[in-house]
Amino acid sequence: AQRVTQPEKLLSVFKGAPVELKCNYSYSGSPELFWYVQYSRQRLQLLLRHISRESIKGFTADLNKGETSFHLKKPFAQEEDSAMYYCALSGTDSWGKLQFGAGTQVVVTP
Amino acid sequence: GAVVSQHPSRVICKSGTSVKIECRSLDFQATTMFWYRQFPKQSLMLMATSNEGSKATYEQGVEKDKFLINHASLTLSTLTVTSAHPEDSSFYICSAGPGTPTYEQYFGPGTRLTVT
Questions:
Q1: Whose C-alpha in A1, A73, B86, B114 is 20 to 30 A from the C-alpha of A54?
Q2: B46, A96: Cβ pair inside 8 Å?
Q3: Which residues of A touch B42 (CB under 8 A)?
């Protein structure tokens, strides 16, 4: 069975400090991993997908198959990064349907 | 970027009535759309996969007779909550993406359903 685990419900960091959101997954095949972000009163939007290996808004995420992790990192948090972050997994045979983690609320204080 | 819209944004209905929620892809065609449900302070849970021109595929535990899905065109999927009860009150979100499989998905703004 596939599962996505985000152990932290809430992360509170100071502006300029590094932030790391943890995501672990279980899946028997080779999954696609994503990070989605939801800013206050806005719809869910894609932040990163592991296959593209991009850095978006200063965030990066590396897929570690050995540790089955896809942690999201940013070296210097900004106040505008305050949002809800969801890690999501799509299986190779699931035609795009996503399984979401529980989400991590990030609060960046000045 | 691609845009997905939902209508209505919020709806209040009486117990026992049915309510229809529309999901539209505005600038792309989507052979597959997805419907999610989100309870307060919880994550999104996939309810069903809506397939254009064929029957929807429901996740385990989701009643297909209660949550009717129709994907009549490449830009429109509808979710009808039949004989609604207060426990159906929730935030319903759809997503869609160009291409098949739809690995890059765009989400609608959601519909807040309240059943009184």
A1: A1
A2: no
A3: 102-103
Task: Name the minimum distance, in Å, from the CA of B103 to any CA of chain A.
Answer: 5
User: Which residue from A18, A107, A109 is spatially nearest to A59, judged by alpha carbons?
Assistant: A18
CA distances (Å), origin B97, targets A31, A44, B32: 18, 14, 7
Residues of A in contact with B46 (CB under 8 A): 97-99
Distance CA B85, CA A25 (A): 34
Which residues of chain A fall below pLDDT 50?
none
**Residue B30 contacts residue B87 (beta carbons within 8 Å):** no
- % residues pLDDT > 90 (chain B): 73
Nearest to A70 by CA among A101, A3, A12, A25: A25
Measure CB to CB from residue A43 to each of B34, B102, B109 and give the nearest one.
B109
Q: Is the pLDDT of residue B103 over 70?
A: no
B75 and B30 Cβ atoms separated by less than 8 Å: yes
